[in-house]
Model the fold of this input.
Amino acid sequence: MSPSKQPPLGSWARRTEQGLVAEPATERELTEVIHVLADRGVKLHRDLALSRARLTEIAAIGTESMTVRVGAGVVLQDLDHHLEPHGLTIGPLSPAAMSLRLGEFLEGPYAGLRSIPGGRLEPVCTALSAVTSDGRRLETSRAPRSAAGPDLSALVLGAGGRLALVTGAVLRCMPFPERDVRVAFSFPSAQAFVTALQRCVAEGFWPWRVHADSRSGRVIAEVRWAASVGSVERDRELLSRCVEEAGGRGAGEAEREGPVSVEHESTWDAVRASLEQGRAVQLFRLSLTTVVARGDVEGVPLNETTGWTSLGSRLLALDARGVFGGAP
Amino acid sequence: MTRLPNVSAAALPPPRPQVLEARPALARAVGGRVSTDDLDRLAYARDLWPLALLWIRQGKIPAPPDAVVWPGSDDEVSAVIKLARAKKLAVIPYGAGSGVCGGTWAINGGVTMDLKRFDSIGEVDAAHRAVEVGAGVLGETLERKLNSKGWTLGHFPSSIACSTVGGWLAARSAGQFSSKYGKIEDMVLSTRVVLGTGERLQTPERPFSGPDLTPLLVGSEGTLCAFTGAKLRVFPNPKGRVFHGFEFSSVEKGLEAIRLIFREGLRPAVTRLYDPFDTAFVGKAGAKKKPGVPPSLRGLLRTSVLPAVLRQVTRQTLGRPSMMNRLQQGFSRSRLILMFEGDPVRAEAEDRAATAICRQLSGDDLGEAPGRAWFKKRYDVSYRMSRLIESGTFADTMEIAAPWERVHEVYERVHAAASQFAFVLCHFSHAYADGCSLYFSFIGSGESEEAMETRYHQLWRAALAAAVHAGGNVSHHHGVGILKAQALQDSLGEGRHALRAVKSVFDPDGVMNPGKLGL
Amino acid sequence: MSAMDRHEQAYTYCAYCPKLCRFACPVSEATHTEAHSTWGKMTAAHLVAEGKRDLDESTAKALHACTGCGRCKSFCKHENLVGPALFAAREETVKSGNQPKGAASTLATFTQAQNPFGPELAALVASWRSETPVRYPLFPGCSSLVKAPQVIEDTIAVSRAFGAPMGVSRVSSRCCGYPLYAAGSHDAFRDHARANAEALDSVPELAVLDPGCAHTLKVVYPMFGVHLKTRIRTVVEVLEENLSHAPAKPPLAQTVGYHDACKLGRGLGQYDQPRKLLARAVSGVQEAASIRSEGGCSGGGGLLPRTMPEVAVEVARRQAVEVAPQPDVAVVTACPTSKRMFERSGKTSYDLMTLLRRWVES
Done:
């Protein structure tokens, strides 16, 4: 659609160098935008971009459940700074993820996921609110787990704003760590490194970052984690034992500066393959299934939206009014 | 809830003509494995929703399906669903019928599709800690097979003997060790399904781009698809297991202990805190015979004292539950059972850390006996259902979840609401860093079967409303079925339209398990 | 009082139970049918017993969908005797004349021949007259006499090698009557048991080869008020007692899977004896994921091979896969009926006696 033929969107949109941008300040305004777009046949993501940068409310913190209700426009790093005086942190996400706004983190390729002790993946949000293409509100339960029907947050997480637009979420936090530890190990092989880390993760270890470098022939890895004093020591014992059982040993010093590259969601097989080829990687969000990796590792790039699976595309039918612009 | 249809077990209504007409085509679709026999229809009419037990006591059953089919391949499942679409027949996917919410009731007739022929168990992929299994595999069969190879799924629902992998996925099941291993949705890597369109699908494993269909299909209770298989994450058999029991001066302190344990990053496989009445009554009654027997409904019903009491405390006494519930006001102590498992050194270390937290909260250390006793008898509670129903009462359980800020209020409000209609017990289990599940047990009665059924429905309406009003959800792991359908729809608010929209994409003709989840 | 009245509580408890033995029933595992689950069958019996449902043909068939293996009882805190309860309900099918064909024909054969197979057992027993001294009178059971005489030969050879020579007893011409019991012809079974008790009056001891017979004589008879004076022991039990006299030979270099026969294990509690014997005979013994009191079933009991022959074979096939999934590993069992069922399912199988004979003669 040429600019001259663009229907007027009134005060809901402003023109920028990148094109038209709608920047609602409240969920209600966002709902209005959706109705206006539908009325005028304008497609979000194609004819007009949506910014939720003004949805920056950080509501009261639930100190018992360690949760906080946050607007979709809040940058995660900023949120972390906000949480620190309350003795909380958003926890170990990857550097690139921390620079994102909440909405981008939830809707984008990160799909709002993080690992938790035991190596499982769970959404950082325990509940979210969103607006669907018919302008209706979708709000999921704050219960820690549920069997009350399907998890409708799947319409938001990783869906690129094509099925619903997130406006805010209740995020799971963790205690701000008392101690931050880095320990280096040396492994005879990439497989030994992977075996040791996977076992630790399965037993409840929650590393924040792992730097692994196989350029010297052995895999030299620095593992960083942070928690309470007691937790750190329990984890240290577990980690040391798992490393030893996998054939590794302690190492004095390790390279701390990892490769700065696009983050990928990768499998452990991909990480092993990369290390077997004498490369260096940095790993974040270590779960039993996947990790977020920096370096020359195969995986799904997390800095851009790539094509959906055909199954995911089936859900585009939910945008009955065609407001969200169809497939990415 | 409006009265649901039931029929006499003595004379089932004949299968609907349109199903009988479709019978030859159904038979072709599933290699002849179709039945319109009354005995099969009777067997598939009910699941384990206790409401049906009140009916069976009177020789009645829920309205039966018109036919039962046993497909053995995804193609056969697809053929059944496509036929159902063409003939406008309902299809009710069926695992082993262990649900307690009427999730497999054929309220408007139709074809019940038993999926137990999908009973394959693949070899464990040790490198990726995963196993592919058919949706029809029974839990106990799977766990035993995995154990024999050195692995565990870590999924131990009370229904493990009578529930299938497909049923777990359909209803978002949780096992007793969920605090460590997670719920079934945390264990599933990918699923194999046939949608309500008749299309066969396999959901992708991470990493992939775009939205994840698995969370939309898991928990859909047969309203969107039929599960035929899944790839599940497995763990090595635990080498160590540590039990520890504590008693606190109040339920609030017990809850605080659990919260702090999870805040510290500890992940006990089991955390069970029993409410004060449960703790006091059972703990003392059971102590004579078996010191350390954990407080629970199971314990309550097993003690030497109670069987005799229970026989007297049937219709008359339970018919006036407020009197029984008032007794609870005299008790305050609350018992906690913890179990850590996995790496033995790690389990010991986590137990030490948890012990320190419990002691800080002045918890009395009961040693390992209560936990060991619970572990040994952990499935026994379900056996008591038979005796309760036989004694002329009704019994049911409600499991909900709430964030920590709301847990105690949910407990008190549900307790108060339900106490008007039934004797109420509660324990708190399935804990997480941000909240936990509350598991209520209700035992009630009435002057007549009809009065009892009325009271049963009043109880559920009151309890669910109180739960949602106080900040809880409507189900942590039993699912929704018919029982909680209205409560779910109410709690979803405008979100119910999103659920309906998903339904229209995956099951455009509405043939899949109608009436469940309010769809 | 009908036979069903005695089991009313079991029917009720099962009908109200949340299917806690669902995975344990070999028949419903093979048919995948809820109507054949313990819960389904006992619910049907409950409704019939309470007069809330007629005993129609389908119900009669479901009441016969049980091998009486007792695996469900291993998981039942009520300790419901499902097999006996369903066998009692079968009595009603006899009375109402809607027995499944296989059960009716078995009864007819038994009435005529006093055994379920037809041939005259006395003639078969006569052919086993021993020429050498016998320490233990052997009761092979009509199944072995008619269908697997080789196992009797193996048993006698092994017993001699163990210094505990056995010879077929003349009383072996009498079937224990299990088919009558399983078919629900309980009055006839009681009469048959009493007659057997009289015939056995002068026999102080029997070594019984078929654990089904041993279980019937030792456990089922007393349930019907018939108490034998004869000391009933299984061949396995006797041989294990004499294991110290067995030849000091190395085990055969072979791996087999062991199947706990239902009546030997759950019925008579003999789990260790056959394993001890087997451990001497072969170098490798595989165990299934579920064994001993929780072990699976071969599908041979409860007249299932007569009433639902295809299902019985499927039960055997599934258990064979549990015990020995590898095609080149055979199943070994100490039950002639189980062995036959495994063979029918296409699995190579040996009677424990056969394997022991190979070992002692190696």
